[in-house]
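Example record

The entry below shows one chain as it appears in the dataset: sequence first, then structure tokens.
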Amino acid sequence: MSKLVLTFLFSILCALPVQVFSASESRLAEWPVSASTNKETPIPANPAAGKETLAMLLPAATGDNNENLISILATEIDKSVKTKPVLFAPDPAKPLPASQLELLVGISLMNLGYTEFGSDGAWYDDEIGVLPGFLLGGILYWPNWYASLELNAYFGDVGYRGQTQSFKSPVLSGLPINSRSDANIFDTTAIAGYRFSAVTLYAGVGYYFWRRNIRPTTINNGLQVAGMLEFYSWSYALLGIHVPMLSMGTSRISLDVRATRMLQANMEVNFLGYGGYDNASLNLGEDWGLRLALPWTFRSSSSNGPTITIEPWYTSWNLNRSNAVELMTKGAYTGSVVQEPQSETRNFGVSLYFRFLM
């Protein structure tokens, strides 16, 4: 009888799961050493017959008698690779706990390259120059997911080259203009990403704002050219991939590719008193954009030290020719229309930023 009981108890014990308390054996799939996030991101219309078109939104110029009016032909992140210590994945049966918060801060230099063209592809004007900036952000990590918020901002002035167009005297059209343009650019992104083995896929939304202030100047014949203030803004969707390329000791070089889609770009023009015109709002349509980056990340040898990233990058997008809008003076239509020409933006730069695990 006792043998039967022992045999029965032994069979029950054999059927029970064996508990393993070794940390190395209870580990599930872990994050790779880095989790990535990026920083960083046309409706032509025919004016009504008999109405004259202002020279594609350019500042105006006046002569000594303030009657001969001329317009200049006038009318570019986000960025980081986040690194965090390897984490233990939680028990799938338990709620997914949040990981550590990472803060980032850094500085940037951007070469703004903005050019406007006529409908026939002829060059109208451009703005080219280097702008200093900064970036701020935060990332919250989970075992396989992360979410980030980031602001990139640039301030300064760049060179402006354009040409004039006269409304009353055609002989004064096409005169070369050289001036400066003040630029204030803000690019904000909200991103969520998921890590698949070594590759990270991410998606999000962003908001871009550019305050463009073309300064007044004087051309060679002594005519003064008035300035013009413009505000460009649009929301956009983004989709990207981050791929580690090369590891060297405690550093890593990665490739980050991001596609963006404008969600209705708009522009507001302030003529700064020229012609007595009221402000005008224009629709710039929607288009695709691209961002490429090669973040080079250095992990500190100290457990409490920051992670340093040097990130060269390039961005590209186009804006379509706007709709034509009839100008008003004190709410009354003037019979003249204004239109923003098509343009392309090709910016490149480098960012240096530090990431701190909190």
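Notes for this example: DSSP finds two helices and 21 strands in the chain. The helical segments are 2-15, 23-26.
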